[in-house]
Each structure stands twice: as C-alpha cells, then as structure tokens.
Amino acid sequence: MLSRSRTAPSRVAARSVVAGALVASPLLAVAAATPAAADVPVGWEDGESMSTLDVLLVFVGIPVAICLVLALFGFILARRTTPSYLPYVVAPGVAVTSSTERKTLEAHH
Questions:
Q1: Helices within the chain (DSSP H only)
Q2: pTM of the prediction?
C-alpha cells in the first residue's frame, strides 16, 4: 500500500516554491549577466603569454607534486601505525605476538 503524506497541500506547495526559487536564483543571475560585466580589467591587455615550460609546470608539475606529497604522507603514516591484521594463532585462545616466536614456528613448518 502506498503511504500518503501527512503534510497539508499548502505546505507542499510552499516547499515546492522555495525549492524552485533556490534552484532558479543562480540560473537567473547567470542569465542576467551582460557582456559589459565581462570586460577585461584595466591593465590586463598588456599581459604576456605563458611559455610551454610555464604551462607544463602549472598543469603537470603541481598535480604531480601534490600526488607525491600525499603518497609520502600515506607512507609515513602507514609506517608509524601497528598492523591491523590478527596475530598468528597457535591454538584457540593462544596468540603469537613476538617476532621470535613467529620465526620458531616458521622454522618448524
């Protein structure tokens, strides 16, 4: 069975009007922008073009640098934390936690 809304129809209509106004307001602001608002600021006409090296540094160098920094942070944080996997279990309720005990177990297998 379909559920019915318990809100009054006038509230539903008011919510629709408010939602429509919120969606339409940025669209109206963009549509109302005139070409005069897009004039180039004074002094920008004399700008120099970017060289190929500058373009490569901006569009390739910066993203690569950000990726390297994030990878470095991830590597450092991974090295500083303890592993989250379960230790070796020899018998129910008995876990091997030290590396020397692990080595002796691996040597016997």
A1: 9-32, 52-56, 62-80, 99-108
A2: 0.40
Q: For the chain, which ranges sit under pLDDT 70?
A: 1-9, 34-38, 46-47, 81-97, 102, 105-109
In whole angstroms, what is the distance from residue 90 CA to residue 97 CA?
10
| Amino acid in the structure at residue 53 | L
Nearest C-alpha neighbor of 106 from the set 91, 85, 96, 82? 96
- Read off the DSSP letter of residue 98: S
CA–CA dist 92, 90 (Å, integer): 7
Go through 70-98 and write b for each residue having 16 or more CB atoms within 10 A of its CB, e for each that does not: eeeeeeeeeeeeeeeeeeeeeeeeeeeee
How far apart CA 69 and CA 63 sit, in angstroms, is 10
Residue 93 DSSP SS3: coil
**Tokens in use for 5?**
């809304």
Instruction: Supply 52's token pair.
Output: 């190929």
Per-residue pLDDT at 44 = 75
